[in-house]
Every structure is written in C-alpha cells, then in structure tokens.
Amino acid sequence: MSVSIFGSAKSKSATKALLLGSGELGKEIAIELQRFGIEVIAADSYENAPAMQIAHHHYVVSMLDAAKLEEIIRHEKPDFIIPEVEAIATDTLVQLEQQGFNVIPSARATKLTMDREGIRRLVAEQLLIPTTPYIFVDNKAQFIDAIDNIGLPCVIKPVMSSSGKGQSVIRTHADVDNAWQHSQEAGRSGAGRVILEGFIDFDYEITLLTICAVDGIHFCAPIGHRQEKGDYRESWQPQKMPEQALKKAQDIARKVVTELGGYGLFGMEFFIKGEHVYFNEVSPRPHDTGLVTLLSQDSSEFALHVRAILGLPIGKIAQYGPSASCVILGQGKSQDIRFSHIKEALNEAPGAQIRLFAKPEINGSRRLGVAITRASTTEQAVLDAKAVVSKINILY
Ligand code: AMP
Predict the structure, then answer these.
(1) Domains of the chain, each with CATH number or no CATH
(2) What DSSP assignment string belongs to 186-209?
(3) How far is the CA of 29 from the centre of ligand 1 (A)?
C-alpha cells in the first residue's frame, strides 16, 4: 500500500508515519521521511531516544504493551507503521493490518522475524534454503541432547534476542553450563526457548541490502562486517566475493523478501564459505551494518527504505567505491555523555564523516556513534574509519 497524495507535516491532511523504535537507525529513517514532508511520530521505551529528538512528536511506551500500542495507533491513524526494532507486540500489528492499517513491510514479516524460530522454519523448512544445522530446545536436558546431535562447536542463542545478547559458542563440554546459564539470563523474553546451531567456520559474512519496491527487487553491493560479542564493529562495502556466491545470495534474498511481502528494504545476512552461501537472518528494515551506505551510495539504506515504503521507484543505485564504517562504542555510566577531539578525528582521514547519536544515557557498553570513510580499497577505508574513532574521546 502506498500514498498517491503527499500531505504536509503538521497540516490537516498530513501524511503520517509512526516509528516503532527510535534508535539511531530510526533517526535516519525519520530524516528521510521528513525530506518528503511526512509527519513523523516516534515511539520508544525511553525519553529522548535519538529519533524522538527530531520527530514532530513522540510517545514513551513499551511497544510490547499490546493495549497501549493499539491505543496510539488508533489515535494517530498513521499512513505508515514502521517497526525499527524486534521487540513489538506483533500480534497487534497483524490484527490492525487486517483492519486496513499499513505495517512496513508487512505485519507477517514483522511477526516472523521477531523471533528466530518463525523465520528459520520458514526459510529452512518451507523455502528449503541452506542454513546452519539447528535444533530448538526448551530446557537444559533437551539442550544437552541437542549438542550431541549438532556436534561441537555450536552456537546457542535465545529465540528472542539480537546484538549477541545471551549468545555464546560452545567449543568443549566444559562450556555447556555457562552457555545455558547465559542464554537464560540475557534473552529479551527471559528464560526459555533457545536455538542451537552448528558453528560455521565461514570465510566472511555479508549483509545484502535488498529492496522490494514498485519497480521490482533491487540489491545494494554486498556489505562485509566484523562482529564482536554478536554485535558489529566495522562494516565495509563492497565485500569482494565470487560472482557465483553473490548470485546465490541474491536468488535467496529474492525468494525470502517475496515470501515476506510488502515494500521496503531488508537486511539479508549470510555466511559465505567458498561458493557455499548460508542464510543466517533477515531484518525487514535497515540494518546496522548498512550505516556505511550513508557515505558509500547516492541513496543510503534509509533513503531507499523510505522510497520503497512510499511506493516510489528506486531506479538505479550508485555505489561510490570502497567505503567503511566503524562504530563509536562507549563503555561507562553516565547521563551526560560528551565527546571531544572530533576535529582531530576528522583530520585522520580527509572526507571522513562522523555521526553522534545523542543517546541520553549509557550504563555499560553502548553504540554512541559511527565514523564512515571512503578510500581506494575497503581495507584502507576500514583502517581509516578505525583511526578516526580512535581519536575520539568520550567523557562520562
Ligand atoms: P546473529 O544474532 O544470529 O546475527 O549472530 C551474531 C553473529 O554471531 C553473526 O553475525 C556471526 O558473526 C556470529 N554467528 C552467529 N551464528 C553463527 C554460526 N552458526 N556459526 C558461526 N558464527 C555465527
């Protein structure tokens, strides 16, 4: 569903978008929506979330609270409901979609990808796409049996988790107890079901940004990335890979986004080993590793998402050459985060860009910004982006 008349924000006939999740990715989506004059309403569970700071208005609400979520949607009557996170009362979105509300890209995609089981069973068991071997278990006894089946090393992840929370690699039997304990403490929905996956000793992993729009399915150049503790640290574009492997990944992406339905940008994650391509996950929305596209392409992943959502054609995507992003990771406790040496940081790599997310609080480790660079090779772009970040001083 798209609009054919674009109302002006804050006017009687404003075209309205409700962002469910207001982090740094939501902030960039909000900026792109506003470039089309759309009225942006930002929701998240805490005050002063990045996208709230630039939205026309906002709600502080738990998006897992079905009744509150429905109340806001019925009150605002947004033309577009745009999930930015996984922790949302997705059954409410399914019901509201049936009543005519427009969930991006579709309520089904949001529901299937909110837990690892929905999307894994769809992709591996219905679409018969290669993934890591896996077993879902509900308790420790089943977990120990599953380890015997899958073999070591293997990876445990809570079904409701992202950014590496509750995830660990089990290399020897000595790791079993700690891995189970960790998985039960760090998942989004607390203790319970986990997925146990075979560990793939991949050559590299990619995010293939795939856009489903009125003028067909489009791909961005593959993005390589390095993860630490399940969270991304650097990403680069384009990731060099064999033509055959890229084609396989694109074929899989085409199948999955067509099945999930709706217009928007999807972050398709794959592990690549030689010419073997394993599907890992999909986000039916912009992906954190895609922050590199703020500098590497003429339209960033956020701009592409918004164009697709609005029912506009994507046309052609220009990639500007080897580029990289490196996250600015804070570590501390503060409600008054400050940054210094930004000038020195930018002097490290002429042409570099820095985004600071203005998060209101840190308690432990949190992504606070990103540096993005372009160079003659992706290797150099990564080195430059890391050099920029290394100069920035965070004050807590
Ligand atoms: P995920 O939350 O599933 O995206 O996992 C986070 C990161 O952990 C991935 O991007 C990989 O770097 C690593 N990882 C996850 N699953 C596996 C696996 N089965 N084999 C090897 N590495 C994995």
Answers:
(1) 16-103 (3.40.50.20), 133-198 (3.30.1490.20), 204-395 (3.30.470.20)
(2) HSTT-SS-EEEEEPP--SEEEEEE
(3) 26
Asked if residue 200 has its Cβ within 6 Å of ligand 1, the reply is yes
The sign of the CA dihedral 53, 56, 59, 62 is negative
Could you list the beta-strand ranges (E) of 45-132: 57-60, 80-83
CA of 117 from ligand 1 middle (Å) equals 15
Query: Among all chains, which residue has been given the structure tokens 């996170």?
Result: 85
Residue 160 has pLDDT above 90, yes or no: no
Q: How confident is the model at residue 1 (pLDDT cuts 50, 70, 90)?
A: low
85 burial (CB, 10 Å; 0-12 / 13-18 / 19+) is buried
- For ligand 1, what atom is nearest to the CA of residue 132? 19
Alpha helices in 191-324 (DSSP H): 243-260, 293-296, 301-309
What's the mean pLDDT when you consider all of the chain? 96
Phi (first) and psi of residue 392, to 5 degrees: -75, 135
Residues belonging to the chain:
396
Kindly give the distance from the C-alpha atom of residue 41 to the centroid of ligand 1, in angstroms, as a whole number.
33
Residue type, 100: G
